[in-house]
Amino acid sequence: MSITRVLSTALLAVGLAAAPAVADDASPSPSASADGGAPTQAGTSFRTAAEIDQGQQATASGSTGDYLYWSFPADAGQRPDVKATVKLPDAHAGQTWQLDVYDGLRRRQACQYGAQTRTAAQGATSVELACVMRTVRAWSEPWADDPLPGTYYIRLTVVDLTSADLGQPVSAEVKVDSKDIGGSAAVDGSLAEPLVPGIAVKSASDDSSSSSDSSSSADSSSSTKSAVLSSIEPDGGWSSGWWSDRWVWTGIGGVLAALAGIGGYALTRGSGRPSRVPPGA
After folding, report:
1. Cα separations (Å) of 97 from 23, 72, 212, 253?
2. What percent helix, strand, coil does the chain show, rounded to 5?
C-alpha cells in the first residue's frame, strides 16, 4: 500500500510540473500590437529604422538604390524568420536584391537557410527573400557572434542593377515571425540587459542616480536628457534567461529515477523471514 501511495504522489507531481510547459508550448507566437499600427515607411539607416513587432507586416515605398531599414525585438529561445517581398516596376532589367539582418551590436548575422540574395529576371513583377536566423541565446562568450536578446535590424537593398533602373519606384513588404525552440537551446547564463539601443545610457543614468545626494540632481537632469532609442520589446517583456522547460524535464527525470529505485528495492527485498523460521535463528 505504501508503494502504491508513493507512485501516485510521484505521478501527480510529474503532471503538475509538466502542465506549465505544455501551456507554454501551446501559446501562440507573438502577434501585432493592439493598435495594429504597422509602419508604412522604412528608415534609411540604423538610427532611423522603422520599429515593427513580430507578426506585423510592414510596408514601405522607395526607389531602387535606397537602403530600407526596419528593427524588431527577439528574445532568448526564439528563432526569427524574416521574409521580404519587393514589388518591382513594370519595365526593368535584371536586378539582384539582398536581405541582411544585424543584431543590437550591428554585427551581421548569418542565416541558417533561406534565399537571402535573389536575382529578379527582366520583366519580373516581384522578388521574394527570406532569412531564418540561428536561435537567440540568453548568453554567449564575448568573442562569439551568437545571436543575443535585443533589437535586430533588417536591411533591404538592391546590390546589382543597371544605371537605367536606378531610382525607379519600388514597394516592399517585410514580416518577422519566430519559433520558440524551448529548453534545447537554453544555456546557463543571461545578459544583464538586452542589446537594445540606448540601454547603456539608461543603465548609466540609473546607476548614477543612486549615488550621493549632492550628485543626484545632476544625474536626474542628465537622465532626462538621455533618450532611450528603442521602445519595442517582446510580448510579456524580456525573459530573465534562467527559466526554460529544461527544468521541467530535469524534474521528470529525477522523479522517474526515484520510481525506478523504489521499484528495484521492492523487487529485490523479498517477502521477509519465512514464518517457519523462529526469530533469532
Report:
1. 40, 21, 55, 49
2. 30, 25, 45
Task: Copy the grid coordinates of residue 106.
Answer: 550591428
Which amino acid is residue 139, in one-letter code? W
Rounded CA separation 233/28 (Å): 17
Element (H, E) at 244: none
In sequence order, the 6+-apart residues with CB closer than 8 A to the CB of 129 are: 83, 84, 85, 86, 97, 98, 99, 114, 115, 116, 117, 118, 156
Identify how many contiguous H helices and E strands the chain contains and give both numbers.
Answer: 4, 10
pLDDT per residue as tens digits for the range 47-85 = 999 999 999 999 999 999 999 999 999 988 899 999 999
Report the distance separating Cα 271 and Cα 211, nearest Å.
Answer: 71
Q: Which of 179, 185, 245 is CA-nearest to residue 18?
A: 245
- Band of residue 23 on the pLDDT scale cut at 50, 70, 90: very low
Q: Rounded to whole angstroms, what are the CA distances from 241 to 145, 191, 205?
A: 18, 8, 24
Extended strands (E) in 44-149 = 50-51, 57-63, 68-74, 78-87, 95-102, 111-113, 117-120, 126-133
b (16+ CB within 10 A) / e for 24-60: eeeeeebeeeeeeebbeebbeebeebbbbbbbbebbb
User: Which residues lie across from 86 on neighbouring strands?
Assistant: 127, 172
Q: What is the largest CA-CA distance in the chain?
A: 108
* C-alpha cell belonging to residue 217: 540632481
Q: What pLDDT score does 10 carry?
A: 44
